[in-house]
Amino acid sequence: MASTAKSNKSKTNEQIIAGFQELRQQQRALASKISEVEMDLKEHNLVIENLSDVDPGKKCFRMLGGVLVERTVKDVLPAIVNNKQQMSKLIETLNKQLESKGIEINKYRETHNLKIRGEESSEVEKQETKPGTQGVLVS
């Protein structure tokens, strides 16, 4: 604990802010990846929905590694369903990572007593507009 306190004091303000910004960037990257995978998941759902009504022997095309491959619906559909399940698991994992990154950022802010611009004024406004503290003049 003593060494941690020493290392915190030896960090400059710029290093502390850079560390905070790095954590925020990692959080944004996770959120972006989640959004991207969710869009892919929606596309997979659309394809599964459309292929479920099609004759299993009918030919269809699938993109594999940038190459368009001819297959039958009965070959493609299970693979797409499997991919969808894997994406759902990935989204769950990424959401857990995003949540833990948020906790890490909050601990970092508390440790270094960081405040974000605009946050202070909203706290002051909340204190000023507490219910029951405003007077009403009736004549």
From TrEMBL:
GO terms for cellular component: prefoldin complex. The keyword S-adenosyl-L-methionine does not apply. One of its GO terms (molecular function) is unfolded protein binding. InterPro entries: PFD2, PFD_beta-like, Prefoldin. GO terms for biological process: protein folding. SUPFAM superfamilies: Prefoldin. Keywords: Chaperone. Binds specifically to cytosolic chaperonin (c-CPN) and transfers target proteins to it. Binds to nascent polypeptide chain and promotes folding in an environment in which there are many competing pathways for nonnative proteins. Belongs to the prefoldin subunit beta family. This is Prefoldin subunit 2.
